[in-house]
Amino acid sequence: MELWRKALPLSYSRINSFLRCPRKFYLKYIEGLKEPATPAMEIGKSVHDALDTLIKNRGDMLKALEKLDTLPEQDYTTARKRFKTGVKLMQGLVIAASEINFGFDSKFNKVDFNSPDCFFRGVIDLVIKNEDGSYSVRDWKTGWSDPDPRQVIVYSLPLIKGGLRVNDAGFFLLATGGIYPYPITDVEVNSAFNFISKSWKLIRDRFDDAEVDNVDPIEKFQPNVSGGCSYCSFRDRCKLSEVGGIEDEIRNAQIDKEKAQEVFDRAREIVKETGQPLFVTDESVMALTETLKLKIAGKGTEEKNLNKAAVIRWLIENNGAEFVNISSTMPPEITRIMPPEIGNLCIYKPSPSVKVISASEYANMEV
Ligand code: SF4
Prior knowledge:
six-stranded mixed beta sheet; alpha+beta; three-stranded antiparallel beta sheet; binds iron/sulfur cluster; 367 residues
């Protein structure tokens, strides 16, 4: 069997893995090395199963929650919160289908997910039927990493190929309750097909180059250290001296102050992306916390400034002088004693931030 065939069938995650780090893609999909599931993956899978069970069993909450039972206590709390957010996001929607497997052959004709001719495949988390007869595609996102619109636009293709009108495709962000929809026009559809075809050409070209140069194909799949090394299971295999355990680096950075800022910044990015805490010492962790941040309502700078002035005036007249610079951390409780015309100018949005807190505080935190 030609080695390149092992890269098939493609999927959004395979392509994304290749674009982030070609070496990781090679080790995982061509050499077939197993990647142990991380807590974030386990949470994601259980929450997906629970939401799918809820939909397919007409809202049977007990049956759905059973899908979270196998998680350890700390992950269960996180998963349950993500699940509840998903339930809230579905309220009032007409769910047409959930967890649909699809496959395309190399000419983008529909084929079975498990067909030997399958060239690209995926699983659509949710299809919503809109009042005007069109459909919307949604993907549940349980972590904190930035969603990639290409993923959901690609997931709208099987419905469009099946003759359905897809209005938009997007993400339900279960960590924040946010919704990211992207409208679907012919431009997006064509760019999604191009994304798959061009990515495949990039992968195939590397095998062809290896043949021409008569080298082991892995040589053409170079490591990319910005591809997420700190939580990559193949660190030992890719033999990069730069790749070390980020937790060890954090500990060392506490001693080597010059390096501290850089290591902590990188660690913050990892916590944000994976949603998982890192131990800084045996008693403290770097973890994702969520605080409410204030924004003043208004369209454009002029309206915002007028609204800000009205809030400041009220604060001065009502002994709230310590907040007159309208700090984004002004507690929301203050708005409850404001008259509605002033309180409504203060909008609070959840803002995730990464902080070092004590391990016991983390354990008690409602994640
Ligand atoms: S450790 Fe980094 S460079 Fe090596 S395979 Fe993993 S992501 Fe790629």
